[in-house]
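Example record for the data management plan.
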Amino acid sequence: MKVAVLHDGIASESSPDQQDILAQIETVGGSLQRLGHQVLPVEFSFRLPQVMNSLSTFSPDVVFNLVESVGGNGQLIHLAPAVLDHMRIPYTGCPLGAIFLSTDKILAKRLLFNAGLPTPNWWTPEEGPAEAGDSFFIVKSLWEDASIGIDDNSVVFGLDSAREKIREKETSFGGKWFAEAYIEGREFNVSIVEEPTGPRVLPLAEIRFLDFPEGKPKMVGYRAKWEEESFEYLNTPRTFSFPQEDEPLLKSLSKQALAAWKIFGFRGYGRVDFRVGLDGSLYILELNCNPCLSPDSGFMAACLQDGMAIEDTVSLILAAVRR
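Corresponding structural encoding:
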């Protein structure tokens, strides 16, 4: 089968999170070749006629969609599936609607709230949440993932500080930002892969916060994800081992992740990130359609924990396109 691997453009000055796409191209492309497929990497950019011409010339049976941004802008991630739908080329992972709905974090939170699924309260300068008193907030990008712009200073107290921090982030990074209630507690990643019988939850992972000093926010910011020599990176290991008393919690997390998968119309693979508050309450933090597939990513770690080789994972994702 002919498979085009569609991916972000990579510039020499790209940040570590953008450079990670190279590992994904190598991982996915190499796996597809070992599975016997003919593979062509295709860069997705604003030069849409050139992209479409490359795809038309290669005439793939399917596109493996690795696009996470266009021109470094995560807000435009939905352009890739839109073009593929227009060209009537099948592609892996989530469809256009699921990508758009889950990437806009406030829209996603509204859909979760309306479906009765828990998510932290939020606030923007244009509109307030149902409850927004004197509490801690974490200021996030509305569209970008990979914890871009998130550091210790992103956690602030009170709406006045949140308003100021939003202005600061929008000036520094561009785009739209918002404030979300900061939940002190545990953090979990729930990865899901689609099989012939339907979506299946992979082994759950918890992000541990080791030796964090008093007052340092326990969160997975940019340094924890991308700066390998940093305190945050070295002290936020992933674990798949849980005591027996966590079993009811793990079942609840799995149930809610599958509910979110269904509501947003995910396909192929995905990940749902949770916080569990100090009182045991569950909150959906992020919905990750088409999560990172580099060998050290959270999704691939869950697949490995489940006993799947990289080729098994890529094959499952590819097979889901036809269902």
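Summary line stored alongside the record: The chain is about 35% helix and 20% strand.
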